[in-house]
Amino acid sequence: xxxxxxxxEVTQLLDLMIHSLYSNREIFLRELISNxxxxxxxxxxxxxxxxRFKENVFDPKIEVRFDAKDRKxxxxxxxxIGMNEAELIENLGTIAKSGTKNFxxxxxxxxxxxxxxxxxxxxxxxxxxxxSDTIEVVSRKAGEDQAWKxxxxxxxxxxxxxxxxxxxxxxxxxxxxxxGKEFANRWTLESAIxxxxxxxxxxxxxxYEQTEYDDKGKEKGKTQKNEQIGSATALWKRPKNSIKPxxxxxxxxxxxxxxxxxxxxxxxxxxxxxxxxTLFFIPKRAPFDLYRMDYRSGVKxxxxxxFITDDDKELLPSYLRFVRxxxxxxxxxxxxxxxxxxxxxxLSNIKNASVKKILGEIKRLSEDKEKYxxxxxxxxxxxxxxxxxxxxxxxxxxxxxxxKTTKDDGLTSLAEYKERMKADQKAIYYISGxxxxxxxxxxxxxxxxxxxxxxxxxxxxxxxxxxSQVNEYKTTPLKAINKxxxxxxxxxxxxxxxxxxxxxxxxxxxxxxxxxxxxxRVSARLNSSPACVVLDENDPSVQMRxxxxxxxxxxxxxxxPILELNPAHEIVQKIGEIKDEALVNDVSFLxxxxxQLIAGMTLKDPAAFGARLSRITAKAI
Length: 621
Ligand code: ADP
Prior knowledge:
This protein is 37% helix and 21% strand. By secondary structure, the chain is an alpha+beta fold. It folds into three domains: 2-231, Heat Shock Protein 90; 236-366, Ribosomal Protein S5, domain 2 (2-Layer Sandwich), CATH 3.30.230; 496-620, Up-down Bundle (Four Helix Bundle (Hemerythrin (Met), subunit A)). The strands form four sheets. A nine-stranded mixed β-sheet has the order 1-6-5-4-7-3-2-8-9. Helix 2 (27-49) crosses helix 5, helix 15 (496-513) crosses helix 18 and helix 18 (581-598) crosses helix 19. The longest helix has 23 residues, at 27-49. The protein is elongated. Bound molecules: adenosine-5'-diphosphate. Adenosine-5'-diphosphate (ADP) binds next to helix 2 and helix 3.
């Protein structure tokens, strides 16, 4: 016998679970039965793909037994793929998924009170400790002779010893706690299995003793029954109109290992040239690892009901990684390898059709503004990622993207913006940057406000990359207002003559600023602000540069902004009159620095800025 310690996070997870899921303890049954179902899926695959297992008769069964007399134990047994010693240690002593691991370690300490969050992801095998004092797992891996027994009381340690077992598979025996005893009952088990595992594609048997009575109602004796619970048909193959919403919901929970709800279900049973079934779910909440590099793909591939893989990130484009579900093809060969999958025509057809279906469903969601706001909050960024990557569906995706706007506090679609456009408006205007409040107060908006023109506020990191890929929406160009010349098509706030008159002032300021700016221009667009900074047409924005820097692969090029001056502003006019060179210098830099701050940029030399401000303030007092 060997003793082992649980990984720290396992102990933390156990602790969290007891506190947060206690009122919903019966879910342990769902977790154990879906593990058994996965184990059967894996063995089924071996029997069709691996010569060593071709001789095996695959007679899948999940069996549930319990101690009716003393209610001391409950057993869930399967004849699936099983685990050997190393796998028992790896699977039942650690949390393999780094996302879950991080999540659990973040939830401890101060954040423990948020522990109801834990219901959002699959709690798995360990949930059985909510009803057990001790758990024993006896398992024999398919193809191996030695069986192993894993035992633990869930208090930090487990032990493993040699054991014997007829046939492959795993038997999980729960030594029930006082308040787990309610589960050693035929009706409780039957109703929980029906509720949580009706869609499992393998037969589930419940063993119980039935008391027989004679005509006079006197006990005659007991007989042992082994009754099949549930339909043992894969849910996705059942006729759509026979499936209840709760059944979809439970199926989603099983395959996603997410305890949450679904926002939408997309079930397609395609016949014809290609025969396949897809069942996709859009979850209500984004999984916590949605933006991690090591997110898990949410789609399982089956071929004729045989599970092939759940680890192929190519089954759907990565921007749809929040979608969970199943693809089951009748046409793919059962022995598909990963390499074949990558370039398989059948699969790529299914994939393309699936993307269209899913986008269609999202479009349908978008018809309900309130519902769509919910979707957008969780997955809006993914839709925008799609704009960047999925060229074929760009038009559909453009309809689904939402942006903030100067029109009001809510979000708008490009279609809605276009509908509100003025008759002679030439472009869809936007301003991008890192902070919504800075953008909303930008002096660049002055001219647009004055003209009653709407401007999209793009403060989401991803907006910038996306919008750089999208030049127009239904033939209307998209135009960044923080670029030089963006105001060419606006009515001028200042006339030709006052602009001309201020040219020498711009030159004077450029001389003072030297290399700090690319250019100083007289602006036709500023109304009340003295100055603003803009970018040259092809220069990347501050936001873009920050992102490149974060990616680490582009050295920060020193991109100099262009300073625009308001010819009608008192300060600008006065610069024209001052003779004192030091003062021209100070005022020019202050104008430039102020404009940079307002645009959300950081100053190169804050100390020099402070010194200048003090000198001018001293003069003014
Ligand atoms: P999850 O199922 O989400 O991966 P679990 O904690 O429920 O997490 O299980 C951990 C791992 O243990 C599973 O991924 C699987 O490899 C293995 N396992 C659990 N139950 C069984 C079983 N009945 N037969 C074979 N392997 C199992």
